[in-house]
């Protein structure tokens, strides 16, 4: 009939979708903050490794090692730390997520959230892509502080204590 009016759910309840968009913004801000904290921590770890090994860097340069070969050693060392952290973090988080999936340990108030427990969705493709992306971003970010190795002179590094 000509007198019927069709209305989408977004037009009928726009406040719900505004609230959902606000939640998405919070998630993005939290993820960006976590990424910044992770980058700062990994940069700090690499700088500490470089400072602790300054005499070694000087000795390697004195016997003819190139800056890039020394940088690669530190980048591989830092990358192995990242991989160990990713593996440990994945094991712990997947174990906790599995516990929530099977036993519903975390419950919610159904009158507020429209569900009784926190839902869990295992998507291993997303987990794998997230881990690969994290590894690549951390490696690329760690190239910047490894440039400090090129500034170290062999004679000063060997005397450094």
Keywords for this entry:
161 residues; single chain; elongated
Task: Give a structural overview.
The chain is mostly helical. It is built from eight helices and no strands. Helix 2 packs across helix 4 and helix 4 packs antiparallel against helix 6. The longest helix is centred in the first third of the chain and has 39 residues. It is elongated and about 90 Å long. The relative contact order is 0.14.
TL;DR of this structure?
It is built from 8 helices and no strands. It has 161 residues and is mainly alpha-helical.
Beta-strand fraction estimate: under 5%
Low-confidence stretches: none
Q: What is the typical, i.e. mean, pLDDT?
A: 88
Give the H and E element order: HHHHHHHH
Number of strands: 0
Helix content: over 70%
Question: Which helices and strands, and how do they pair?
Answer:
Blueprint: H1 9-12, H2 14-52, H3 54-62, H4 67-103, H5 110-113, H6 124-143, H7 148-151, H8 154-159
Helix pairs in contact: 2-4, 4-6
């Amino acid at each position: 009939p000509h007198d019927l009016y069709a209305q989408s759910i977004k037009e009928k309840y726009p406040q719900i979708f505004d609230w959902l968009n606000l939640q998405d913004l919070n998630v993005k801000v939290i993820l960006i903050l976590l990424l910044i904290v992770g980058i700062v921590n990994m940069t700090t770890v690499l700088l500490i490794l470089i400072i602790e090994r300054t005499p070694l860097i000087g000795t390697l340069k004195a016997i003819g090692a190139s800056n890039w070969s020394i940088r690669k050693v530190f980048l591989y060392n830092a990358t192995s730390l990242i991989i160990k952290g990713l593996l440990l973090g994945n094991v712990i988080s997947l174990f906790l997520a599995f516990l929530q999936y099977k036993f519903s340990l975390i419950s919610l108030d159904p009158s507020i959230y429209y569900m009784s427990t926190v839902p869990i969705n295992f998507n291993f493709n997303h987990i794998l892509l997230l881990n690969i992306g994290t590894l690549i971003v951390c490696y690329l970010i760690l190239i910047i502080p490894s440039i400090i190795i090129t500034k170290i002179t062999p004679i000063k590094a060997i005397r450094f204590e």
